[in-house]
Write a structure and sequence with these properties.
By secondary structure, the chain is α/β, with parallel strands linked by helices. It folds into three domains: about 110 residues, D-Maltodextrin-Binding Protein, domain 2 (3-Layer(aba) Sandwich), CATH 3.40.190.10; about 80 residues, D-Maltodextrin-Binding Protein, domain 2, CATH 3.40.190; about 80 residues, ACT domain (Alpha-Beta Plaits), CATH 3.30.70. Strands 1, 2, 3, 4, 5, 11 and 16 form a seven-stranded mixed beta sheet that branches. A five-stranded mixed beta sheet has the order 8-7-9-6-10. Strand 3 and strand 4 form a beta hairpin. Helix 2 packs parallel to helix 3. The chain is globular and about 65 Å long. It starts with a strand and ends with a helix.
Length: about 290
């Protein structure tokens, strides 16, 4: 049986590398016969899953340097029924690709905003005067290089191999341990694991509105590995709160916690429990 997996394309992106790593090392035998489907944005990637065009979707959610990928969080709140199946931590090793003869000849650098930000220190040191232009993905940036020999793109080493574009500089990420956490999303119930992700809005923007939900976790000694706020987009100063728990929602104690939490929220959404797997650098390069 073939399973379709949506990802932020075109081929050569880190999202594709995460999808391939999932297929090769983590998925069941059925998923190994998969069809990877590139989409031009994270929003369209997740919408394809919600609308039944694909059966899984792989999207970035958090980077070591730049933090949360807010589009992923916003779309997860907006689209119902999406469940996290797996988390993958992928090493990110950016390179500068160009058909220019030297780095000094580059006048413009294209890439996804996250990649540009993750290489900001390197760019300021070696290309302080270049124009930085954001694109929808790191691989989309490559389309400009064939026509403009003064342009460069920040993307993966794998993209250089796929599209046969010279690498002018490698290992240009500001922090050598840079990595991104990806979620494998599906419509099936989550399989369970050591982490649970959820989000909620509070009934009113009043003192203590957030303290009360957090006290539920504190009183039961449940560790929160992450908490993030996002605007509700209804009124200035209103926020949603995304939380990761170090616990499995199938446990009776966690179910009791969530039942106690619900009255302190306006809307509560549970995105599922899942395991987190770290993908090695060799797995990424072999894809």
């Amino acid at each position: 049986m073939s399973i379709s997996i949506a990802y932020l394309g075109p081929p050569g992106t880190y999202a594709e590398a995460a999808a391939l790593a999932y297929v090769r090392t983590l998925a069941s035998e059925a998923v190994s016969q998969s069809l990877l489907c590139p989409y031009p944005s994270i929003a369209q990637t997740l919408k394809s899953l919600a609308q039944g065009e694909t059966q899984l979707a792989v999207v970035p959610v958090e980077n070591l340097i730049e933090g949360s990928v807010v589009t992923t969080l916003d779309m997860l709140w907006q689209l119902d029924k999406l469940q996290i199946q797996q988390a993958l931590v992928l090493p990110i090793r950016h390179a500068l690709l160009s058909r220019a003869s030297t780095i000094e000849a580059i006048q413009t650098v294209y890439s996804h905003p996250q990649a540009l930000a993750q290489c900001q220190g390197w760019l300021e040191r070696f290309l302080p005067s270049v124009q930085l232009i954001p694109t929808n993905s790191t691989t989309e940036a490559l389309q400009y290089l064939d026509k403009d020999y003064t342009a460069g793109a920040i993307t993966s080493q794998r993209a250089a191999q796929l599209y046969k574009i010279p690498v002018l500089a490698s290992a240009i990420t500001d922090y050598p341990d840079n990595c991104t956490r990806f979620w494998v999303m599906g419509l099936q119930p989550s399989p369970g694991g050591s982490y649970t992700s959820l989000a909620f809005s509070v009934p009113a923007n009043v003192p203590g509105a957030l303290v009360k939900p957090l006290q539920v976790f504190a009183s039961r000694e449940i560790n929160l590995s992450r908490i993030e706020s996002r605007p509700t987009k209804r009124s200035l100063g209103e926020y949603l709160f995304f939380i990761d728990l170090e616990a499995d929602a199938s446990q009776s104690s966690i179910q009791a916690t969530l039942s106690e939490l619900a009255p302190h929220t306006e809307i509560l959404k549970i995105f599922g429990s899942y395991s987190v797997v770290t993908v090695s650098s060799s797995d990424v390069l072999e894809t």
